[in-house]
Amino acid sequence: MADWTDQLPEAARTYFDGKRLDEVECIISDLPGIARGKAVPASKFAKQSYFHLPDSIFYQTITGDWGEAAGEDGFIERDMILKPDFSTASAAPWTGDWTLQVIHDAFDRDGEPIPFSPRNVLKRVVQLYHDKGWDPIVAPEMEFFLVAPNVDPAHGIKPMMGRSGRPAAARQAYSMTAVDEFGPVIDDIYDFAEYQGFEIDGITQEGGAGQLEINLRHGDPVKLADEVFYFKRLIREAALRHNCFATFMAKPIEDEPGSAMHIHHSIIDMETGQNIFSGPQGGETDAFYNFIAGLQNHLPAGLAVMAPYVNSYRRYVKDHAAPINLEWARDNRTTGIRVPLSGPEARRVENRIAGMDCNPYLGIALSLACGYLGLIQQERPRRQFYGDAYEGDGDIPQVMGEALDLFDEATALHEVLGPEFARVYGIVKRAEYEEFLQVISPWEREHLLMNV
């Protein structure tokens, strides 16, 4: 690996041109989407082709507890072999020295991909598409809040202080003045993204106080999931430079909208290069309707992956700017499945269900898996919805426990995502949910203590 730097993407080589690289962060996403790994001196990284981490990183809950998911051999923390994907090499421009980040893939001692590593789950689903001659294309949209520093969990989360010295105000969707309030943070987000070689399609103010949305250019699902994974850290670091926090919670502030990760999908025929959602005359194809039906029929069973925490379900509240059902419509943002305005070559389907708190690899994998099942089984969607879908009835699980029950029974989804992943994910999330059920909330103390 003496000339390993020749394998770096252009943005990384440009950033480090003429500089002495100090450190390499060897990272991998765990189930929640937290970067795990090791930081090593660049001189040591140049001599290694892999490193080890225990497989137990995938059995850990968001609180640091463990799910009993180790299997028949027990909790022996077997070493995985982590190999770098140099196409993901990216600067870490917020660090005090010259640091490179590299995403790694996880394998067992026989060279087989670890089936419950999130990046491997997404690669598995993409390969199923390729086996059919299809190339899936996605475009994620990331919503998040910039909030005042919150160092005491007992206190509610408050909007950040803007450049004017006033707290961020809600109901300012698409306001450029509101965007200007966060100008210094946004400037750093742009700078960090440029150093890391990421192309931002746009930043807008959303409806919540201090809520922003970043749109990414469409492309390969694994590459885009890598970017969202990197972006979450990038945005947090930019916020910390300006005495605020960035949060990707689905519902961080009461009476404010939640944060979603909307996912746009199209599929290219690998032989012809044509969008399979559009026919020769530009009309909508059977594949277009099959994909929509797959989302409608299978998303409820996969919601535990797209809405992975108890907080996630606080977003699905009627008339709070989040879908409560899986109706589909053209150019209608109240439905869970939306078909945006576009020409035939760019025809796409937008999944508006996923929360920004989901692991990007798993959220995109789950969405593609649902569409894949619709295509393979040639499913048909419900009739197009007209009107305000927020006024309709909900048809997705309302609590984490119900979503986990549906996921545990979803054998068709398990086969697409991988049965071993489904087994581990269900166990870990169930352990996390049961831990939450032991917590007594302020609402319970306020309304039940003296009244029941």
Poorly predicted parts: none
What's the architecture of the largest domain, going by CATH?
2-Layer Sandwich
- CATH fold call of the largest domain: Creatine Kinase, Chain A, domain 2
> Could you say how many structural domains there are in total?
2
The chain-level structural class is alpha+beta
Identify the quaternary structure here: single chain
Q: Give the helix level as a range of percent.
A: 25-40%
CATH class of the largest domain: Alpha Beta
CATH homologous superfamily heading of the largest domain = Glutamine synthetase/guanido kinase, catalytic domain
Question: What can you tell me about this protein's structure?
Answer:
The chain has 452 residues and is α+β, with helices and mostly antiparallel strands. The chain has 2 domains: 4-114, Ubiquitin-like (UB roll), CATH 3.10.20.70; 124-447, 2-Layer Sandwich (Creatine Kinase, Chain A, domain 2). The protein is built from 12 helices and 14 strands. It has helices at residues 10-15, 42-45, 118-131, 176-181, 183-196, 221-240, 286-306, 360-376, 400-408, 411-417, 419-436, 442-448; strands at residues 23-29, 35-41, 51-54, 79-84, 90-91, 99-107, 134-147, 200-205, 211-216, 245-247, 261-269, 328-330, 337-339, 349-351. Strands 7, 8, 9, 10, 11, 12, 13 and 14 form an 8-stranded mixed sheet that branches. Strands 1, 2, 3, 4, 5 and 6 form a 6-stranded mixed sheet that branches. A hairpin with a 5-residue loop joins strand 1 (23-29) and strand 2 (35-41). Helix 8 (360-376) crosses helix 10. The mean pLDDT is 92.
